[in-house]
């Protein structure tokens, strides 16, 4: 019997009872061909590769990460909880040393779901991966350093939003240039909040980037930064819509390119995100990732319509990627200096952002007040006003895992002042130091 070099856990949840519409790219049969391919290749006959059932995430697991407006159970379905539970199950398998690594092949996806969520955007309602990361930190130690490498073609704007101010979570995102693809964000200048400058790194890949460009970024940016950061866990947010056959994107990555990426990255966890070529790409890219994570040979994986010309990359694309890599490496090296400059600007920093829900056609205008604290990540106070949904003015107050006493005190004072204030229709408090969320009644 063939034996895996690395013990690998697979969690599969196809969510046959959830879809946006029968013809939507994110539809019920999206993972069927992957399951068939895995079984046909005899993956479950390999010693050391085991399939596990997902758990069901709790409402508290969701509330630890998100503010769901107006209530969690009004926008989150059971398939969402099982998908998030699949990611949590993967984490438990690794953290409890039952396996060396785990791959959650799950849907619905999650990386476009923001901290404050009013509904579905980019096919995502809650952020499976972020929920898993916060679960790990709650259950296994809030001081853990975690690195997320997102390889989806679409910028992981939701994951970025959730961890933008957290220096214990390094978020590196490789994606098709936001000037050419939804959600239109994720540029190299977006480096993280004041207390976590350069702990967010965005590499906007030009359309038609090939395996060459992807692996240049991996070898010259991602792996050196990971080595410097020295995380306790590495997570691949395994979006696979960079594939050359994907109908929603304009990239040229192959199944071999994905497998080699996971071979080099050697992630502890892989959590599936996008990928919409359900017959011509996903069965092959998922198989390549599985074999790479298990330490097995993946050299014979060739998808339909592959030709060597797909790997040829235009010189101008190579040059653009090289320039971005150089810029981001410099910003990473300057991170302590950049954070010091931010903290010297005052006690609070206020910003605004507008979030568009392409699926549910909601627009959310946010005003964010961030405490610039030298002792911790600082509390964050956000006012949210969404339309056409009519929940009025919402205020959310976040207390981070590493909050100092002063920040925590100010957060509770803010909550007490706001909860009975007629200017706000809803007020929420999220205290990660106590694993406590207070929602409106």
TrEMBL record:
One of its GO terms (biological process) is epigenetic regulation of gene expression. One of its GO terms (molecular function) is histone deacetylase activity. Residues 81-279 form the Histone deacetylase domain. SUPFAM superfamilies: Arginase/deacetylase. Gene3D superfamilies: Histone deacetylase domain. Pfam families: Hist_deacetyl. InterPro entries: HDACs, His_deacetylse_dom, His_deacetylse_dom_sf, Ureohydrolase_dom_sf. Belongs to the histone deacetylase family. PANTHER family: HISTONE DEACETYLASE HDAC1, HISTONE DEACETYLASE HDAC1-RELATED. This is Acetoin utilization deacetylase AcuC-like enzyme.
């Amino acid at each position: 019997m063939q034996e895996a070099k690395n013990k690998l856990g697979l969690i599969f949840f196809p969510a046959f009872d959830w879809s946006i519409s029968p013809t939507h790219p994110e539809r019920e049969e999206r993972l069927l061909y992957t399951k068939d391919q895995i079984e046909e290749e005899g993956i479950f006959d390999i010693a050391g590769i085991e399939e596990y059932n997902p758990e069901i995430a709790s409402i508290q697991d969701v509330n630890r990460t998100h503010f769901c407006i107006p209530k969690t159970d009004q926008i989150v379905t059971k398939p969402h909880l099982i998908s998030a539970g699949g990611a949590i199950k993967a984490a438990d398998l690794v953290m409890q040393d039952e396996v060396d690594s785990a791959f959650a092949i799950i849907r619905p996806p999650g990386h476009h779901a923001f901290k404050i969520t009013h509904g579905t955007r980019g096919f995502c309602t809650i952020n499976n991966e972020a929920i898993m990361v916060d679960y790990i930190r709650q259950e296994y130690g809030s001081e853990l350093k975690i690195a997320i490498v997102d390889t989806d073609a679409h910028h992981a704007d939701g994951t970025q939003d959730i961890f933008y101010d957290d220096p214990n979570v390094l978020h590196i995102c490789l994606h098709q240039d936001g000037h050419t693809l939804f959600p239109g964000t994720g540029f190299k200048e977006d480096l993280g909040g004041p207390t976590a400058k350069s702990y967010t790194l965005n590499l906007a890949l030009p359309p038609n980037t090939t395996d060459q460009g992807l692996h240049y970024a991996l070898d010259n940016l991602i792996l050196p930064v990971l080595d410097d950061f020295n995380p306790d866990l590495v997570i691949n947010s395994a979006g696979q819509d960079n594939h050359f056959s994907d109908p929603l994107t304009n990239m040229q990555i192959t199944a071999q390119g994905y497998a080699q990426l996971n071979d080099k990255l050697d992630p502890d966890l892989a959590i599936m995100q996008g990928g919409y070529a359900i017959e011509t790409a996903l069965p092959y890219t998922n198989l390549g990732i599985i074999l790479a994570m298990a330490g097995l040979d993946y050299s014979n994986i060739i998808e339909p319509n592959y030709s060597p010309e797909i790997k040829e990359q235009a010189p101008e694309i190579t040059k653009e990627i090289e320039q971005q890599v150089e810029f981001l490496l410099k910003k990473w090296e300057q991170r302590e200096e950049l954070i010091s400059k931010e903290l010297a600007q005052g006690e609070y920093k206020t910003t605004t952002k507008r979030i568009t829900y392409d699926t549910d056609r909601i627009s959310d205008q946010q005003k964010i007040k961030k405490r610039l604290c030298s002792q911790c990540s600082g509390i964050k106070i956000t006012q949210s006003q969404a339309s056409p949904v009519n929940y009025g003015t919402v205020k959310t107050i976040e207390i981070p895992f590493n909050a100092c006493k002063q920040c925590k005190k100010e957060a509770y004072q803010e909550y007490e002042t706001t909860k009975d204030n007629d200017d706000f229709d809803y007020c929420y408090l999220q205290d990660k130091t106590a694993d406590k969320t207070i929602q409106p009644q």
